[in-house]
Write a structure and sequence with these properties.
Layout (H helix, E strand, L loop, with lengths): L1 E5 L5 H12 L3 E5 L5 E4 L4 E5 L2 E2 L5 E4 L6 H14 L2 E3 L14 H10 L7 E4 L5 H7 L4 E5 L9 E3 L2 H12 L5 E5 L6 E7 L2 E9 L14 E4 L6 H13 L4 E8 L6 E7 L5 H6 L4 H16 L1
Helix pairs in contact: 1-8
InterPro entries: ATP-grasp, ATP-grasp_RimK-type, ATP_grasp_subdomain_1
Protein name: ATP-grasp domain-containing protein
GO molecular function: ATP binding; ligase activity, forming carbon-nitrogen bonds; metal ion binding
């Protein structure tokens, strides 16, 4: 099988996928999202990347950022005309056009009774009083399309809220504000094909509430065998959001023991979970690709 990982190039995650793929007889390539070029005329529609034809791939794993419409159109065209397997397929499925923003995520999670913190999405700092009427301090604010814990701020006053929202809206179209839930670090559950294949608890570095590995956090193995509720929530969340390969972030309220979903990441990094646990995530992904290929082939 010939596989393209769109959105990864020359990093450790791609190397791991190439390593496990090669062991099982597959070729795995990577490319940057910016390498896509599309030629269109009344006779032709040709999406391609630098030096390679997209038509040559049996499977394309989309790890490009949200709302990369040109990539979605290219993937839709390839699946329709050539039968190319697309992961995560939801981005080109007309049945799931709503799954591309946090608000639609919240809507679906509420509809399916999945627990998540109270949240507000705004486009202007003039709605501070509205936020305060819905959520008590402390709060957590972040850009609507933030990744890896960047620009995530914990705030405890109206002054900090105004300053934080203004700062975020300088570089983001919208801002997400959610209630702060006291916890001992979040739990990243990695799901492949809607099944949990590994988990770790991420511990924030001293003086920081963010537990992202990229922000200095550390990880320890999190055994799901006796944490059935966490497993169930993670797998259900991945399925509800139709995210075939997902990093589901969950926190446990220190005071009540109740779990909450923080995020369902459709382009999860797995270097950390492989480093801090015995999980072979790259192999699980390749095996899932094989299953899709056998099913469609």
């Amino acid at each position: 099988m010939k596989i393209l990982v769109a959105g990864l190039k020359k990093n450790s995650q791609l190397l791991r996928l190439q390593e496990e793929g090669k062991k099982r007889g597959h070729v795995v390539h990577g490319c940057l999202a910016s390498e896509l070029k599309t030629f269109a005329s009344s006779e032709e529609f040709i999406p391609e990347i630098t030096g390679k034809s997209l038509k040559s791939y049996d499977l394309i794993y989309l790890m490009v950022s949200k709302r990369r419409w040109e990539w979605y159109m290219a993937a839709y065209y390839l699946k329709k005309t050539k039968g190319t397997i697309i992961v995560n397929n939801k981005v080109i499925d007309p049945s799931f056009p709503m799954y591309l923003t946090p608000v639609s995520d919240y809507f679906r999670q509420r509809e399916k009774r999945l627990p998540f913190p109270k949240s507000v999405v705004i486009y202007s700092s003039k709605y501070v009083e509205y936020i305060e009427s819905k959520i008590s301090y402390p709060m957590v604010i972040k850009p609507i399309s933030g990744r890896q814990g960047r620009d995530v701020i914990k705030i405890s006053s109206q002054k900090e809220l105004l300053e934080g929202v203004d700062k975020i809206l300088k570089n983001s179209i919208a801002c997400v504000i959610r209630e702060f839930i006291p916890n001992d670090g979040d739990i990243r559950v990695f799901t492949v094909g809607y099944k949990a294949v590994g988990a770790m608890q991420r511990i924030p570095k001293k003086g920081d509430f963010r537990s992202n590995i990229s922000q200095g956090g550390t990880g320890i193995n999190y055994d799901l065998k006796d944490k059935e509720e966490v497993r169930r929530i993670a797998e259900k969340a991945a399925f509800v959001m139709q995210t075939e390969i997902a990093g589901v972030d969950i926190i446990i309220d220190k005071n009540t023991g109740k779990p909450y979903i923080l995020e369902i990441n459709p382009s999860p990094q797995f270097a950390g979970i492989e480093k801090f646990t015995s999980s072979n995530i790259a192999l699980e992904i390749i095996k899932y690709f094989e299953k899709l290929y056998e099913t469609t082939g």
